[in-house]
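Methods — Computational structure assignment.
A single polypeptide chain was analysed. Its primary sequence is given first, followed by the predicted tertiary structure written as structure tokens.
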Amino acid sequence: MPIPFTLLMLVLALIFWHRSRLAKCFVVVATTWLLLLSSQFGSYYLVNQLEQQYPVNNSVMPEGCVIAVLGNSHNTTHSDVALQQLSATALSRLIEGLRQASISQHCQFIFSGWNGGVVGPSHAEIQAQAAIALGVKKSNMTLFPLARDTIEEAQYIKQQIGSSPFKLVTSATHMPRAMATFEAMGLSPLAAPTDFISSDDSWWHISIANLSASQRAIHEYLGLLWLRIKHSLSNS
């Protein structure tokens, strides 16, 4: 979380203000951190390292293919229309799932994601409603409304299809962690990334969009680190 970290450094600078050298150190770290992560250069470097690992998938699967669209988020505050409730990331994943179905034949969809612990429909249900609005038959869907994270999504999908190959649709930044999680559980995912956010237009450009992209990348790097730690602990 870049902004909370920056604020923490500034608070520490105030606490140790009487020790000028240490206080200056905290201010320099906070400023450098915020500047680097909100710059086009810093954001592109962090995000592109993740997104370049798996290219856009245009392969054709045999009849009876399975497409798993991983969940993200939705908001029911402003509309009762499922398509308008999906976040931009969730909508991008859904559209890519439909595109994958268009280049194969008779595909089955898997939608996953819980309701976040609040009253209301699960994310998987909102995804399904949106897919129906775009022409997908309800009989061609399997929902996992209790899956709370990538690990649980992998567990549910393994129960459904075992080790059979399937298209895995998620954001390009999330794909390396998703693939590592699914493959570690013995599944056979074929990466179908979407929602690419890296851009190298102007290296000096400073923006909140860059900061948001950097935050997403840091989240994924920490997730990958945690997977490696868990793997090392389980093998020790």
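Note: The longest strand covers residues 165-171.
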